[in-house]
Amino acid sequence: MQLAKENLLAFYQTMVTIRTFENKAAELFAAGKLPGFVHLYIGEEAVATGVCANLTAKDYITSTHRGHGHLIAKGGKVDLMMAELYGKATGYCKGKGGSMHIADVDLGILGANGIVGAGQPIAVGAAFACKYQQNGAIAVCFFGDGASNRGTFHEAMNLASIWKLPVVFVCENNMYGISNCQRDHMNICDISDRAAAYGVPGVTVDGNDVVAVFEAAAEGVKRARQGDGPSLIECKTWRWRGHFEGDPATYKNPEEQKTWLQKDPIPRLAQKIIELGHAGEADLANIADAVKAQVAAAVAFAESSPDPVPADVLTDVYAGQ
Amino acid sequence: MQLAKENLLAFYQTMVTIRTFENKAAELFAAGKLPGFVHLYIGEEAVATGVCANLTAKDYITSTHRGHGHLIAKGGKVDLMMAELYGKATGYCKGKGGSMHIADVDLGILGANGIVGAGQPIAVGAAFACKYQQNGAIAVCFFGDGASNRGTFHEAMNLASIWKLPVVFVCENNMYGISNCQRDHMNICDISDRAAAYGVPGVTVDGNDVVAVFEAAAEGVKRARQGDGPSLIECKTWRWRGHFEGDPATYKNPEEQKTWLQKDPIPRLAQKIIELGHAGEADLANIADAVKAQVAAAVAFAESSPDPVPADVLTDVYAGQ
Amino acid sequence: MKKMTYAEAIRDGIRQEMKRDSAVYLCGEDVGKFGGCFGVTAGLVDEFPGRVLDTPITETAIIGSAVGAAAVGLRPVAEIMFVDFTGVCMDELFNQAVKMRYMFGGKAKVPLVLKTICGGGVAAAAQHSQCMEAWFTHIPGLKTVMPATPADAKGLMAAAIRDDNPVIYIEHKQLLGLGGDVPEGEYLVPLGKADIKRPGTDVTIVAWSWMVHRALAAAEALAKDGISAEVIDPRTLVPLDKDAILASLAKTHKLVIVHEAVRTSGFGGEIAAVAAEEGFDLLDAPIKRVTAPDTPVPFSPVLEKAFLPDEGKIIQAVKELF
Amino acid sequence: MKKMTYAEAIRDGIRQEMKRDSAVYLCGEDVGKFGGCFGVTAGLVDEFPGRVLDTPITETAIIGSAVGAAAVGLRPVAEIMFVDFTGVCMDELFNQAVKMRYMFGGKAKVPLVLKTICGGGVAAAAQHSQCMEAWFTHIPGLKTVMPATPADAKGLMAAAIRDDNPVIYIEHKQLLGLGGDVPEGEYLVPLGKADIKRPGTDVTIVAWSWMVHRALAAAEALAKDGISAEVIDPRTLVPLDKDAILASLAKTHKLVIVHEAVRTSGFGGEIAAVAAEEGFDLLDAPIKRVTAPDTPVPFSPVLEKAFLPDEGKIIQAVKELF
Ligand SMILES: Cc1ncc(C[n+]2csc(CCOP(=O)(O)OP(=O)(O)O)c2C)c(N)n1
Ligand SMILES: Cc1ncc(C[n+]2csc(CCOP(=O)(O)OP(=O)(O)O)c2C)c(N)n1
Ligand SMILES: [Mg+2]
Ligand SMILES: [Mg+2]
User: Fold this and answer.
1) pLDDT tens readout for residues D224-265
2) Mean pLDDT in chain C?
């Protein structure tokens, strides 16, 4: 499939937005400005970007604790996200959720999630609703290599299969669950092989190649929209940072880390764009500058936003309260 | 493998004991003598028998809600079992457990279990202890086709695999989980195919052929004892009765039921024994008579045993109480 | 009014709401062609094609998927066959269903009914007989419903389905066959409103689910001894109708709480705490709790009888106050 | 005596028992080379080769396998990284681990320690900040341990490991860095024995875990206002040292219970019920509970501060009694 210029430039824009947002979050965390846990998506941008490029605002995604990339790729607004990271009243969750719980249900984002694997059956439920309501929408479930060991994976895959639901399971295999590397937490190489246990097609792609991810996801999304049921896509990638900010990740092999840094998905895409003549270095630099300004504005928005007031703690527990 | 006469006769004895015990339990339940839920193993005797024939009293098993067959095959005493079904003070659990919780830890029987799938990680833990203590023992986990859909299956298989534990997973595929038949609860034919998701060998055998079960289990047990890790054996069989006593099982296809009744594992074994000249019909009838007497004695024991006393409700909650 | 059993009334409540709103669906293990382990949902699969779904044995995915479906606009009634199995899907209930709205800053709603059944008395032993409502009441964002009569069973089911929040609706095995008058046509019982099942003046007995009937039997016997007991059925534990309890205490000045769940940290503790905080001056005697002891549920009927609270134990507790 | 932090003391307790008994092993997510999410188990993997095991993300199998291992003779210390994740393995804990002995007629023992951490104050939001002890105390067969000081942390960990029953040992994030004197060499604190963390005569404050320190701070301030508060730390909620609480009430006649968990059906209710049942005549004022409100834990530090009980809220509650 030959992707159009607009597509590739849109990918670039999204990936750079994620990278810039995440680098800024790292900086702000180190400066003590962000409370709580922050898990960054740096190095994995091609996955969320390639997958979400196949979706519309009517489609649903479930995300993870490492959710910023998914949210941005699905259309989440960086100012509302940043304000939420700060815990401000103007944030996506009015400061009640924080990084691990950002959601935008109107955009089909059913939330980052602090419980590893919890999104899997939730995505199945959203997909069930799409089928039940025959509204043509689908659901995508992002989860990690570590999460593929949880029972929720098994139950969600099986239920989606027998109910033939329009859901695409996207496993972001970044080779680690905190300090535990894939070869220590499972005895198989390709997580996509797990799909066969449910009569579901599974495929593995280079998760640092946004075009490969896009194409594999397009196939899964097509199946889902056609009523052919779920599929599993494993995207092999690498977590550049520690598990959370503050983790020096001494358990990682420096050689491996170096190798993976060289596979940075962003320059790879940039090179392709330039080779294809879709844009020049200067054009790409312009995109990056615009993104930088956008993220800076998001920080300014967050910093100038008010904190919630203490009484807010009691609201939003029950609907119709 | 050519099995010795003693082996085949021992299989026969065990299978007839299970069948006789279960038929008696059905009769007693219908007569209102047994309280609570009773799930019978009739038709599936070859599975427990063929598997447990590979084990010693030092090995462990975890059982299910449909546990009588496993217990008998592992050496459980029918009088203590029957007394427990009656809820008597002389029963295996002093009347505290009932059919769904019979255990004999000294015989390595870690309990029937009322929670479907709960035995899977428990067996993994017992196998871990065997490996940790280097005592040469192994664990076997019995569970149903329905239970293979629970997250416990996934997590137990994966953990057993990466820790290379001496455990054999035995899936009794009797084609139903209560009213839900296999084709409605999963999208694959052979549950043994699920083993590949964990890098574990899986095999499917005719669960109504005790010799086939024995041989497959022998292979799994050998692997386990040699330190080669877990394996999964699927035994295809059929639940003759309703899910529990009292269930008319109208959801079953009568044709299918008829076909399976013709595959009764007991006459099949009898025929083989006779063909091989290991015994005559009269010898087998003698075995059956002896078993009948044993089960009748178990009933007499149970009926003449005292009920627990009300104060017993408070004991056995804590060790060292 | 129509005579029906508690089981039929539950079904009637589900039927009423399924007819009214196509977003309502029912799913769970064996709820379809089998009609539910106790026959409660019998026939609904034929009445509502495509809206009553049998699931595999997959509690985690049953509740997890119900959360996802509810968050995007459906109104699932998701059955967990026995309340004892909720340990399998607790995360989906307490970290997902009930927290989504709050964590998302009020920008989601999760109208999900977890339908299940509790209780002993059928020799179903330790893993099929429990009463676990105290756990659910300790989960902000969840409502806990435990009907004791056919009419309440219908009206509370309908209200639970119509509520925009996660609700756990807990039936009791002993009540399934209980008959009673149930309003025909649309009927709703509001969540959070206690019902005085028997008025009285000398002592307040708070009980719910099966224990309402044990308390009523005790009250009947106590009346013969000249003690007038008021029996209050909160019907929903969260929201709790504190006012009804405190108003009763203002009359009787004595409180006995009865629950089938084990004693320590049962919901009786919460009610006792409310009374000792907000009604301390109304009380003129120690609060009593009549509960199961702190043990698993035993199998043998002899032991289970000793385990379960009953009218004898309630009468004794009440008499100790006089 | 040796100065160490609460985290070091926990590790010391584990070390003591691992040295003593080769049947003790430690397993959980990232407990090995990573040293635990908060560094509590750092170094043990090197000290005890083959006995400290990193697991996949598999809470169900962590606790399920620990049950199996314990039932056949080992003594697992199985870590669940945050107490908030116990919803994932609740069945393994409450239907398997704690019921085996009873269901089997006393013919099994399950010496398993579920080690985990609770509590707020670090902006970890709704799924990583909860206090869920009330659930655990409602599970007959389980013991619930919540140390507040380094010495208790060591002694109670050792006692938990040595106990022949399932024990849940709940640390608190806010206490990990707290320093204190800890006995060197073998040290055990018996389960079921409260500790009077500060003696007093005018009001009894019962608090545990982090809240002990908030209560002590409040007592300090109250002393300046002439109110002498006795601070009782039960240390283990099950078994509960009722005698210590009732003895204190016999002196003070006033009870304030403080817990970080949400209010409704928190363990404060149980303590209030015990006091209103067994100590009614000792009380001369309403019982007070100082708790978190019935909401999920919010993320923003501003909101979380409003959510958490603190000395200000305790002082206010106490003063309302005078
Ligand atoms: C049920 C559960 N168990 C454990 C954790 C702690 N935890 C948070 S993230 C994480 C690792 C997740 O690994 P993976 O799924 O591969 O995602 P990644 O962090 O690599 O993106 C763990 C163990 C959790 N949040 N939830
Ligand atoms: C976790 C859990 N879910 C549901 C049940 C109710 N239940 C008891 S047995 C059973 C069917 C089990 O099917 P399978 O595993 O195939 O075993 P079989 O009954 O066929 O031997 C179900 C659903 C249960 N006991 N535990
Ligand atoms: Mg990962
Ligand atoms: Mg089956």
Assistant:
1) 999 999 999 999 999 999 999 999 999 999 999 999 999 999
2) 98
How far B270 CA sits from the closest chain D CA (Å)? Answer: 36
CB burial class (10 A; 0-12, 13-18, 19+) of residue B53? buried
- Neighbouring subunits of D (3+ Cβ pairs under 8 A): A, B, C
Q: What is the ipTM of this complex?
A: 0.98
D206 has which bridge partners? D232, D257
Which pLDDT tens digits describe chain D residue by residue (322 residues)?
A: 999 999 999 999 999 999 999 999 999 999 999 999 999 999 999 999 999 999 999 999 999 999 999 999 999 999 999 999 999 999 999 999 999 999 999 999 999 999 999 999 999 999 999 999 999 999 999 999 999 999 999 999 999 999 999 999 999 999 999 999 999 999 999 999 999 999 999 999 999 999 999 999 999 999 999 999 999 999 999 999 999 999 999 999 999 999 999 999 999 999 999 999 999 999 999 999 999 999 999 999 999 999 999 999 999 999 999 9
pLDDT-derived band at B1, boundaries 50, 70, 90: low
Which residues on chain A are in Cβ contact (under 8 Å) with C164? 319-320
- Residue range(s) occupied by CATH 3.40.50.920 in chain C: 195-319
What are the start and end residues of each CATH 3.40.50.970 domain in chain D? 2-182
Q: Do B184 and A162 touch (CB under 8 A)?
A: yes
The ligand minimizing its distance to the Cα of A66 is 1
Q: Please give the pLDDT value at position D104.
A: 98
Chain D residue nearest residue B155, CA to CA: D61
Give the residue whose CA is nearest to atom 11 of ligand 2: B177
Nearest to D189 by CA among D162, D148, D152: D152
Q: How far does the centroid of ligand 1 lie from the alpha carbon of residue D41, in Å?
A: 19
Q: Using a CB-CB distance cutoff of 8 angstroms, which residues of chain A are in contact with residue B162?
A: 184-187
DSSP assignments along B162-208, one per residue = HTT--EEEEEEE-SEETTEEHHHH-S-S-GGGGGGGGT--EEEEETT
Please judge whether B155 and A153 are an interchain contact, meaning their C-beta atoms are less than 8 angstroms apart.
Answer: no
CB B14 within 8 A of CB B289: no
Q: Give the closest ligand to the alpha carbon of residue B143.
A: 2
Domain boundaries, chain A: 5-304
C259 is an active site residue: no
CA distance B203 to A54: 40
Residue A90 CA to ligand 2 center (angstroms) comes to: 48
Give the whole-angstrom CA distance, residue B32 versus residue A246. 65
- Judged by a CB distance cut-off of 8 A, whether residue D60 touches chain B is yes
* Chain centroid offset of residue D23 CA: 24
Nearest to C145 by CA among C110, C163, C176, C169: C169
Chain B hits for D111, CB-CB cut-off 8 Å, are 319
Name the residue facing D140 among C90, C262, C277 (closest C-beta): C262
List chain A residues with CB under 8 Å of C50: 132
Choose the catalytic residue: D128, D172, D253, D259: D128
Half-sphere exposure of D219 (CA within 13 A, CB side): 25
Q: How far is A95 from chain D (nearest CA, A)?
A: 5
Residue C31 token pair = 């709820």
Q: Which fold has domain A5-304?
A: Rossmann fold (3.40.50)
Check residue A109 and report its DSSP letter: B
Tell me how many residue pairs between chain A and chain D have CB atoms under 8 A apart: 119
CATH of D195-319, one of 3.40.50.920, 3.40.50.720, 3.40.50.150, 3.40.190.10: 3.40.50.920
Task: From the options 3.40.50.970, 2.120.10.30, 2.60.40.1230, 3.30.460.80, give the CATH code of C2-182.
Answer: 3.40.50.970
Stretches in chain A below the pLDDT threshold 50 = none
- pLDDT for A247-301, tens place per residue? 999 999 999 999 999 999 999 999 999 999 999 999 999 999 999 999 999 999 9
Out of C128, C172, C213, C253, which one is annotated catalytic?
Answer: C128
Q: Quote the CA–CA distance of D303 and B319 in Å, as a whole number.
A: 44
- Please tell me if residue B149 touches chain A, with a CB cutoff of 8 Å: yes
